[in-house]
Design goal:
Elements lengths: L19 E9 L5 E10 L4 E5 L6 H8 L7 E5 L15 E4 L11 H11 L4 H14 L15 H13 L5 E5 L7 H18 L2 E5 L3 H7 L2 E6 L4 E7 L8 H4 L2 H17 L6
Parallel strand pairs: 3-7, 3-8, 5-6, 6-7
Antiparallel strand pairs: 1-2, 1-4, 8-9
The structure holds adenosine-5'-triphosphate.
Length: about 270
């Protein structure tokens, strides 16, 4: 088996202390639904972690709790290597990309990407070079003046990613960001995200239903089980190959897909094959 369980190579800036730690996190909604039960997870700086699991197992709930968009019922979230603000979150260090690009239709691409900086009080003059550079990194420098209605689905998602990156986050949380896109656009955006992850040294937690996408992108897979949601499998994916078109047809990728698929099947109560 080429896909091994040896420790992961991290970005050079990786620290020993985890970036974020979930300790015994449980979440019960007011409806009585137990979305998470005693979920524990450490994510190290520089990791690319994909979160998989059956529908309703609590992936989005876990991501939203990490982002501070929802409370826990019990358990704690800690940021051992960050400075914490009054809300208990690492200041300006987290960005979220949703399945829908959620752009403001009456604003240009430039204005949409400016939004998080504007909310931080950054002047337009200060923000302009940062916005243009960020648009360049997602291949949209020539579309700064365009409106969302003038863009394809893939381009809208690139704007959404640029908006997430413009604040230079340490942690990028992505909740099924490419599920609504066609396969070729999805593969291109997978390559964009991998490039940004490598170039910017960010940490990514990526929710997906796609075994193929998770196996292509991640250096760690976390599989959750449903009712109630908790971690069922957690393993690294290591490859000596560059993750590119060649990797997609390699034996290592096939094995990564098989391992991920078996873990998912097992979490759903099926048998490994
Ligand atoms: N605001 C809410 N109020 C009540 N129940 C909720 C709420 N949000 C989620 N749930 C429930 O919590 C459970 C976990 O939902 P969650 O969306 O986190 O799962 P998921 O794994 O992301 O699902 P999917 O893969 O279908 O997106 C589900 O049973 C869901 O119906």
């Amino acid at each position: 088996m080429i896909v091994s369980d040896t420790p992961l190579p991290m970005h050079s800036e990786s620290k020993k202390r985890p970036l974020v730690t979930l300790s015994g996190v449980s979440k019960t909604f007011s409806s009585g639904t137990v979305a998470l039960s005693n979920m524990s997870l450490n994510v190290e700086a520089g990791e690319f972690v994909s979160l998989l699991g059956p529908s309703g197992c609590g992936k989005s709930t876990a991501l939203r709790i990490i982002a501070g968009l929802g409370d826990t019922t019990s358990g704690s979230i800690d940021w051992p290597s960050s400075r914490i603000n009054a809300k208990g979150l690492p200041d300006g260090d987290i960005s979220f990309v949703f399945q829908e690009p959620t752009l403001l239709p009456w604003q240009t691409v430039f204005a949409n990407v400016y939004l998080p900086l504007r909310l931080q009080g950054v002047s337009k003059a200060q923000a302009t070079p940062i916005i243009l550079e960020t648009l360049e990194t997602v291949g949209l420098k020539d579309f700064a003046k365009a409106y969302p209605r003038e863009l394809s689905g893939g381009m809208k998602m690139r704007v959404s990613i640029a908006r997430a990156l413009v604040t230079k986050p340490k942690l990028l949380l992505m909740d099924e960001p490419f599920a609504a896109l066609d396969e070729i656009t999805r593969q291109k955006l997978n390559d964009d995200v991998l490039r940004l992850w490598k170039d910017k040294g960010i940490t990514v937690i990526f929710v997906t239903h796609s075994v193929f996408e998770a196996a292509y992108l991640s250096n760690r897979i976390v599989v959750m089980k449903a009712r109630p949601g908790r971690v069922d499998a957690d393993f690294p994916l290591i490859t000596s190959l560059n993750r590119d078109a060649h990797y997609r047809t390699s034996e290592e990728y096939r094995q990564a897909c098989e391992k991920t698929s078996n873990a998912l099947l097992s979490a759903m109560g099926g048998e490994e094959h």
